[in-house]
């Protein structure tokens, strides 16, 4: 079950003289050091609410069925794509540290110490929620990675298909463990890459869509209209599913055409969960995805501008996206 009462939990930051143990230092991507002391055990002169929070924390930690070595399996999962990122082990202190710091933290059996994913590579896994299984002997860190999770540079640590190995034992290839939606996205990306090579014969439907923006947009409008008709004309549910599949496929082709990922869409949706419609619209100019698109458009158009126009356009983009302007001069 999810730890619902930890959703709004802020890191318990106190001075080093107040904290009994567990001081950890994280370094962010901009090189700054984030030294924080997270209160896991008793601290001096704590207010009543902190004591109550510690009591609830200890109750959760006590509920985990740690093995004879005090460990439990800890799995990191992408909060947006659902991809399994990695698997490690956690002890009581590692789980408590993860709850407080919101960074996926594990226990190294070989080094007998805690380690936080990203403390060396800076590819942290930012934890949004934590789940225990029904037996309470395994843990899921549901979070958003800052970069590739695997030490090999792969997006996840799971990229070896057993079935592929059985069917083609002589062929070594990597294939991420993807769900249906992301398998489709991977295929679309492959079709786009194939367009860079000389084409022979008649192109596939996907390639035709990738090459013809007008055709692609007309198909999206057509399929969306047919989807709405299944509701308006009270058609069978199977028709709705079929038309929705068509809409989703064509919209994912458009994302591929724009160089965007479906995971980006899910991240935007997740950001809207706790917002009203008005709040969401007012915050769109600061959305990271919109900022990336804005900067990409500016970059694509910059060659058509004079140097003075380029500086003005860049300043306008920065002002609209809350990104600090560079102090360096342009040449």
TrEMBL record:
Give GO BP annotations, semicolon-separated.
L-histidine biosynthetic process
Domain Phosphoribosyl-AMP cyclohydrolase: from-to ranges: 86-159
Indicate the segments annotated as coiled coil, or none if absent: none
InterPro entries named in the record: HisE, PRib-ATP_PPHydrolase-like, PRib_AMP_CycHydrolase_dom, PRib_AMP_CycHydrolase_sf
Question: Pfam families from the xrefs?
Answer: PRA-CH, PRA-PH
Q: Give, as in the UniProt entry, the pathway in which the protein acts.
A: Amino-acid biosynthesis; L-histidine biosynthesis; L-histidine from 5-phospho-alpha-D-ribose 1-diphosphate: step 2/9; Amino-acid biosynthesis; L-histidine biosynthesis; L-histidine from 5-phospho-alpha-D-ribose 1-diphosphate: step 3/9
Protein origin, superkingdom: Eukaryota
Q: What one GO molecular function would you report for this record? A: phosphoribosyl-AMP cyclohydrolase activity
Transferase found in the keyword field: no
Please provide the record's keywords in A-Z order: Amino-acid biosynthesis, ATP-binding, Histidine biosynthesis, Hydrolase, Multifunctional enzyme, Nucleotide-binding
Q: Does the keyword Nucleotide-binding apply?
A: yes
Question: Catalytic activity annotated for this protein?
Answer: 1-(5-phospho-beta-D-ribosyl)-ATP + H2O = 1-(5-phospho-beta-D-ribosyl)-5'-AMP + diphosphate + H(+); 1-(5-phospho-beta-D-ribosyl)-5'-AMP + H2O = 1-(5-phospho-beta-D-ribosyl)-5-[(5-phospho-beta-D-ribosylamino)methylideneamino]imidazole-4-carboxamide
Regions crossing the membrane: none
Name of the protein in question: Phosphoribosyl-AMP cyclohydrolase domain-containing protein
